[in-house]
């Protein structure tokens, strides 16, 4: 189930000021992995549960278009207030109902937000919007959670118990894991 917190203007302001952003090094590792697939593209990246957009901004130099999505209008407004980059935009949307066409997204990220999502529904939605050979990067402070996705659920949970960051490539018939 999606959780709705940090929605008022005061929380959004605090989030902008104090939320820890992923390091550039971590983003570089995600991008390196994404680009390691020779069929990958850099047209559209979607940062799901973007909050006030700190992680969204880190993707901007690497993609033609970057969209941050969140369920909080106040968080999105804070992102818009601090961003004046032509290829970055924000859209209100739950993680489990992304406003993108099937197979249209090159990279989906969830940076420190995955724990708020309905995991199964979000993974299905990410699979739906990702292009074949697209990349889903889940970055979180903790991976102490249960994941369920197709026939690779046991493997996903095993890896999540061992590492803090996982990267998944989901294509139409493939679930491949790569550990940072």
TrEMBL record:
CDD domains given in the database record: AdoMet_MTases
Any Pfam family the entry gives: Methyltransf_11
Alphabetical list of InterPro entries matching this protein: Diverse_substrate_MTase, Methyltransf_11, SAM-dependent_MTases_sf
Domain (Methyltransferase type): residue spans on this chain: 46-137
Single GO molecular function: S-adenosylmethionine-dependent methyltransferase activity
Top-rank taxon, per record: Eukaryota
Name listed for the protein in its UniProt record: Zgc:162780
């Amino acid at each position: 189930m999606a959780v709705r917190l940090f929605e008022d203007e005061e929380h959004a302001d605090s989030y902008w000021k104090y939320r820890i952003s992923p390091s550039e090094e971590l983003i570089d590792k995600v991008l390196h992995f994404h680009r390691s697939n020779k069929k990958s593209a850099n047209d559209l990246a979607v940062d799901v549960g973007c909050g006030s957009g700190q992680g969204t901004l880190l993707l901007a130099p690497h993609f033609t278009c970057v969209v941050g999505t969140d369920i909080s209008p106040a968080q999105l407004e804070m992102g818009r207030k601090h961003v004046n980059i032509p290829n970055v935009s924000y859209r209100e949307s739950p993680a489990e109902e992304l406003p993108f066409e099937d197979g249209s997204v090159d990279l989906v990220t969830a940076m420190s937000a995955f724990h708020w999502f309905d995991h199964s529904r979000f993974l299905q939605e990410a699979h739906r919007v990702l292009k074949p050979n697209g990349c889903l990067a889940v970055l979180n402070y903790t991976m102490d959670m249960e994941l369920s996705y197709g026939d690779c659920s046991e493997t996903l949970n095993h890896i999540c118990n061992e590492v803090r960051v996982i990267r998944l490539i989901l294509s139409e018939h493939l679930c491949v894991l790569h550990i940072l």
